[in-house]
């Protein structure tokens, strides 16, 4: 578990980047922090691994106070915190396997063991056959998978992700987020994930916090947040319910979006109209269905 309490960061130029942040990332969960540009998201992450010195407040990782640590103790704590970045930050002169092995090299692990672990980790992220490739020979999604394997090399208790999918297209983003979820489930890894995209929160997170001007203004499990009528987060997380006309030269079609809890509409869509396509996604503990309906006149929203 990661516990952030009363965290403040004022830069020497007077900018207050964090203005009293309280945030808990329960062990084994993925918590998303979302917020617009300049709102302090990266500063928050950089305080957690102490690349920035907080001005005030405390950060505890599994009961140990990171904010107090110095020297060798801090270095040991940092090894327990993996990080992935928007620009991957791989060394171009090294192969994928050598990149993954880097944290092990720094920790003094022997060559054979490093190599064995690196290949095992590459296998875990679906790149078992690309160990000898250099970053320039890999796609963006593959580079981020190498980044994830490298972050896992020192068996971290916490993974920090700062806009790790922002440089990737939608499909690749989803496959990387799927991988994070799988690793989270298999290894029980705790993840603090920073993003400015609601789609990322929706696809990957158990909980979400909205950061605005250095403060957490709203937070909670996804299922709870989407149920709050006044929630700014819910507005972003939920698709707009109702009908959207889909222009087509052959048929009049409408895209109907509804919460599966809305049984009346669900039944009407199922009974009264020809459904050409439908998909259901889970958002927190709600299920939202999108249905492409051919005879929309029979559906009343
Ligand atoms: N080293 C620094 N010195 C002075 N001000 C800084 C420094 N780093 C960040 N800031 C300021 O702190 C505020 C928060 O920056 P931060 O990078 O944490 O935002 P962010 O939410 O990550 O933004 P983005 O979504 O664009 O990445 C901004 O006003 C930024 O200009
Ligand atoms: Mg940032």
TrEMBL record:
GO terms for molecular function: ATP binding; ATP hydrolysis activity. Homodimer. Forms a membrane-associated complex with FtsX. It comes from the Bacteria. Residues 2-238 form the ABC transporter domain. It comes from Solirubrobacter pauli. The lineage of its organism: Bacteria, Bacillati, Actinomycetota, Thermoleophilia, Solirubrobacterales. GO terms for biological process: amino acid transport. The keyword Disulfide bond does not apply. Keywords: Amino-acid transport, ATP-binding, Cell membrane, Membrane, Nucleotide-binding, Translocase, Transport. One of its GO terms (cellular component) is plasma membrane. Part of the ABC transporter FtsEX involved in cellular division. Has ATPase activity. InterPro entries: AAA+_ATPase, ABC_transporter-like_ATP-bd, ABC_transporter-like_CS, MetN_ABC, MetN_ABC_transporter-like, P-loop_NTPase. Belongs to the ABC transporter superfamily. This is D-methionine transport system ATP-binding protein. SUPFAM superfamilies: P-loop containing nucleoside triphosphate hydrolases. CDD domains: ABC_MetN_methionine_transporter (cd03258).
